[in-house]
Amino acid sequence: MVAGREIASKLRSKAFLISTAILFALALAGIVIGSLAAQNQSGTAVAVTLDAASLVPANDGLEITQVADRAAAETLVTDGAVEAAIVGDPSATPFGFTIVADSSAPTGLLLLFAQVPQVELLNPDQTDEALRFLVAIGFGIVFLTAASLFGSTIAQSVVEEKQTRVVEILISAIRARTLLAGKVIGNTVLAMAQILVLAAISVIGLSVIGQTQLLGTLGVPILWFAVFFLFGFVLLAALFAATAAMVSRQEDIGSTTFPLTLLIMAPYFLVAFFNDNPVVLATMSYVPFSAPVGMPMRLFLGEAQWWEPLVSLAILIATCVGAILVGARIYQNSLLRMGARVRLGEALRG
């Protein structure tokens, strides 16, 4: 019996390492593939003014339409006839021209130059839909994967200690709240390490492929995502440990942690389907369980005021403290109760 549990524990450790490695590989592959796709874009429709015609690099992937002046070029961009325009501009050194686009400049066009030329956007408040969707999916899937992976690890650990009665030995040496704190802190450190590695991969990857403009846009949201994730995961970790302590068999974990699983999945689906809905994103950014995804997304889109992340973080921290207090009570009152599942009311009363 003991040997079986040791084998199961080793298999879970290997599965954790494999899933983490796959997540890192997917993050790096996503950045590289996105860059290669951008570089392989063909048929980019571009308007070129007469005074900039000699400055445009020769490339078969450009569909060039020559126009007389900047006004004509901007008209084609606004009407959607071309994706961007290259207009002569003596002040734009060292290129001698400026790229004019509507809401975002075509990445494939910018990558034709050794350095990024000056870009002017006619409608800068809008965000590229594809990029917005990819960023939303990125924040959502990282939060979903890390929270569910480490949350389930905490739950399985708690039930395994109850099932093997190891917890009785541990409780005789330390307090139940100390044991809970150790589990929460340990898994939070691992989860944050994973988040920081993913952030480092994103930063290094974008720097290597020359996407410094996108990196500058994503830098602050990624930083806030790490901060929000820290407190959001502590909140979830305390609740995962508390709910798992209410059962004594591995088979019953799903029934108690199912509501928490829904809370983790909800931000992913909401941000995936409603990333272009300001009302939904604003609501998400103030709800503690979805704030780690909603607020960084609003910061990326430029829809959040400077004070909003601070207010949202204060709400999250207050909720986190409350969850820790309630979770610690449930954990302490349920930990030594064997047999049938402990009811929530009994766990709270003690």
Structure commentary:
There is one protein chain. This protein is α/β, with parallel strands linked by helices. Helices cover 67% and strands 7% of the residues. It has 12 helices and 5 strands. It has helices at residues 2-39, 70-79, 107-110, 129-163, 166-173, 176-208, 212-244, 253-273, 278-284, 291-301, 308-334, 344-349; strands spanning 44-49, 62-67, 84-88, 97-101, 119-121. The protein has a 5-stranded mixed β-sheet with strand order 2-1-3-4-5, covered by helices on one side. α3 links the parallel β4 (97-101) and β5. α7 packs antiparallel against α8 (253-273). It is elongated, with a radius of gyration of 26 Å. It starts with a helix and ends with a helix. 34% of the residues are buried.
Helix and strand topology:
Layout: H1 2-39, E1 44-49, E2 62-67, H2 70-79, E3 84-88, E4 97-101, H3 107-110, E5 119-121, H4 129-163, H5 166-173, H6 176-208, H7 212-244, H8 253-273, H9 278-284, H10 291-301, H11 308-334, H12 344-349
Helix pairs in contact: 1-6, 4-6, 4-7, 4-8, 4-10, 6-7, 7-8, 7-10, 7-11, 9-10, 10-11
Strand order of the largest sheet: 2-1-3-4-5
- Strand fraction: 5-15%
| Pattern of helices and strands | HEEHEEHEHHHHHHHHH
DSSP summary, beta strand count: 5
User: Which regions have little confidence, pLDDT < 50, spanning 5+ residues?
Assistant: 1-5
Distance between the termini: 32 Å
Q: Can you give the mean pLDDT?
A: 80
**What's the helical proportion of residues?**
55-70%
Structural class: alpha/beta
> What's the story with the biggest beta sheet?
5 strands, mixed
**CA radius of gyration:** 26 Å
Total number of helices: 12
| Shape by Cα distribution | elongated
